[in-house]
Amino acid sequence: MAKLLRITTVPESLRTLLNGQLTFMRANGFEVYAASAPDNSPADLEGCPHFALPLTRRITPLRDGWAIWKTYRLLRRLRPALVHTHTPKAGLVGMVAAWLARVPVRIHTVAGLPLTEKKPVVRMLLRWAEKLTYACATAVWPNSHSLANYIRQNLYDGPKLRVISNGSSNGIDTGYFSTTPVLVRRAEALRRQLTIPPEAFVFVFIGRMVRDKGLDELILAFRSLVYLNRDVRLLFVGDYEERLNPVRSDTKELISTHSHISWVGYQADVRPYLQLADALVLPSYREGLPNVLLQAGAMQRPVIATDIVGCRDVVEPGKTGLLVPPKDPVALREALRQLLTNPEQGKQMGLNARRRIEHLYRQEDLWQALLQAYQDALAAA
């Protein structure tokens, strides 16, 4: 039985980004282990042993060197046949340590590049880190075709690069993300709880509450939209991150005080909020392949997203949603207005989105493709 170690920077990624995948690999012949920064949650990691590593999402050279050493020691003790990393810091630490430990198969999944939104000096440092990660890996798997194209043009163009199936880190469970009578009732109760009028059109944002998600532009666009139509609401689902890339203080203030805006914090189950909403908005500056777009599409909701890497893989403009330029609140307002004033068009987009998600991003298909890729890599090692 081959040993497989999955490493992410924070433990939440093991639970959310890879939900169900660890169990699937165990059922298909792998002895699965997980590692990340210390895990304070009592929730089980699908029965897999978890190892704490001194990982942080910030740039901390001394601590990162210590993390490489601790990861190397772990690998020498476990002796896995395959190490698979996710997220930039886990990728750098895990791939360097796995190379030093001579792990036969070293895979890094790229799910977005923070360097694209950094200042020149930091961008240069992160670019170097990405290139070192790829050099130490035996395989580099971007989670979308547009991200793979960006990497080929700017970072690495070689045989290690491959997109598994149609992209995504974990696919989408289309059975779980589907409309049911129970979800409809939960959504109706939430609407009453949030005092959203029955006739109001609701846009929802789901994700980390940080500047790179385009929240400043979204607030500007929505405020001007409210002047045109009062029967509209904006709902935020997610937690603020104050230490990394925080939103502007005036944006945060408006989210808290505006009468047409609601914020409910992080929610483990986002389905009732997608069911409540008429459309999803994701005005990000950078992405890999956003899970929330798959979730919204599976729930038959149209989306408004930025025309960037990852989003353009999922959204067919005019068919499953709308794409707008990043950092453009005027274009974003017009897209919001288009869906607000054409609800039937939005409903048709939602139906089209469900069909597209079922065709391209079913979780079972992605897991089978990933399993085959593991088996092929081990056979070739």
From TrEMBL:
Gene3D superfamilies per the UniProt record, alphabetical: Glycogen Phosphorylase B
Domain named Glycosyl transferase family: residues: 188-356
Pfam families: Glyco_trans_4_4, Glycos_transf_1
Domain Glycosyltransferase subfamily 4-like N-terminal residues, every copy: 26-167
Molecular function GO labels: glycosyltransferase activity
InterPro entries registered for this protein in UniProt: Glyco_trans_1 (IPR001296), Glyco_trans_4-like_N (IPR028098)
Keywords attached to this entry: Transferase
Protein name: Glycosyltransferase
